[in-house]
């Protein structure tokens, strides 16, 4: 007998993938340039030239049996040293290789943290709008995901609802800032309020409530917006990082979990991260790309292209009368749908081959996600369609 849960998860594509596949089929019929696909978060900005140079340099000058060989489960020592140095230089921290565990991207980093923490009856809390994969990663460990309703005013944390959700079974809270899908960056005020509450509740319930900070978009921020470095505010934090977006390497599967020394019972906690990586069968993160990201740890792809896209799209939509919280980073816009049922609105947009994702899957109905990591030309060509939709719904200014 097969696992019913796995059959269900494996048979259902995510809504994002469904829409993306629809776009590919339509492109074959009407042509790529007639499809305005804003469904998927695949970076369109190329990896910096230094990534290619690092790959060539490693392949030409390093021992290939080492480059393509297994590394230690937690990652190559020198790689982790370089990455720790880069983090320390940028955030004024004091980490060493012993604080890092290399992973196959943020998805693995998050699943490893859930697995390492999860015990019977545990609950994990996240805040809408949230990355939908959290649910299957948490449920795979036997734990429960609790979603706190969004604060649609500004997409900071809805503390009133959060206080109703936190309880003695809460093992950890997972945050994602800059956020997919809202693009919002949590302010220092939000982080201070959150961490104060977690400290109080940990004391009240007599056990640590951990904070998992999912940060694949940390470097993609606009107008000098600061993304607070969470370990400075809360000792019991795991930082889940990935180079998928910052270096435009999503297919190469490379990232890390950072475990600070200050976390409760550091030795056992780091061991639990290693144990979780082991039982999930990750063995080690890709050896070649561990070396590549170590050489490029201080760099990013050209973020200014995303900022240009954001300005064009955000200003264009606001001008037409759409309502949207201005993003501080990532490459998503999350405006209100023009009718209460975001799925129906997305279906109407689809008639013009404008492909948007309803907010329902992100735990935030009544909104749509627009992923603008696309050619700027696509945005220019799509704006008249957004306008036409606004006119159909009679909202034009
Ligand atoms: N977390 C968030 C919020 C994401 O948006 C994504 C990918 O889109 C991931 C995690 C997974 O990233 P990775 O490709 O590094 O596994």
From TrEMBL:
<dbReference type="Pfam" id="PF00155">
    <property type="entry name" value="Aminotran_1_2"/>
</dbReference>
<comment type="similarity">
    <text>Belongs to the class-I pyridoxal-phosphate-dependent aminotransferase family.</text>
</comment>
<keyword id="KW-0032">Aminotransferase</keyword>
<dbReference type="InterPro" id="IPR015422">
    <property type="entry name" value="PyrdxlP-dep_Trfase_small"/>
</dbReference>
<dbReference type="InterPro" id="IPR015424">
    <property type="entry name" value="PyrdxlP-dep_Trfase"/>
</dbReference>
<dbReference type="GO" id="GO:0008483">
    <property type="term" value="F:transaminase activity"/>
</dbReference>
<dbReference type="InterPro" id="IPR015421">
    <property type="entry name" value="PyrdxlP-dep_Trfase_major"/>
</dbReference>
<dbReference type="InterPro" id="IPR004839">
    <property type="entry name" value="Aminotransferase_I/II_large"/>
</dbReference>
<dbReference type="InterPro" id="IPR004838">
    <property type="entry name" value="NHTrfase_class1_PyrdxlP-BS"/>
</dbReference>
<protein>
    <recommendedName>
        <fullName>Aminotransferase</fullName>
        <ecNumber>2.6.1.-</ecNumber>
    </recommendedName>
</protein>
<dbReference type="GO" id="GO:0030170">
    <property type="term" value="F:pyridoxal phosphate binding"/>
</dbReference>
<keyword id="KW-0808">Transferase</keyword>
<feature type="domain" description="Aminotransferase class I/classII large">
    <location>
        <begin position="35"/>
        <end position="382"/>
    </location>
</feature>
